[in-house]
Amino acid sequence: MFVDQLENKINALAPGSSAKNLLKVVLGDIQQKTAFKEVSDQECHSMVKKMVKANMDNIDLLSKSNPTDSRIEEFRKENVLLDSLLPRYWSEQDIRNWIQDEGIEVNAFPNEGAVMAQCMSMLKGEAVEGGTVKRIIHEMRDDG
User: Fold this and answer.
1) pTM of the model
2) 10: containing domain
3) In Å, how far are 56, 65, 140, 143 from 42, measured between CA atoms?
């Protein structure tokens, strides 16, 4: 599904545009992985996130060494495009509200892992990041 959406975006862009070229790189990376095994949408999202992180690292390095470098803006533009490929994840407040709305008593569980397992099984298929859920559970248990 992700690959189909990506191919549709590529086909909609003007030939030779930097956006089209970037999306072709993303598609190529995914196709390399699919040569060895089936790749899920989540794995595709992880690949895109790694590209965003690499760009952020480059931005940080260039900002320190040469703040006027034109590549900084190029990396930022790439990240806007790459970010548009990712699903909109639940915000921290959305997750807190969901835990409260579901009536999950985080301190009633023997440990954070048990709460986490319960929450993630209920959130299966939702656009949430496990690390964010874990952090919120930790904070809620501390607030007690």
Assistant:
1) 0.68
2) 2-83
3) 21, 35, 27, 32
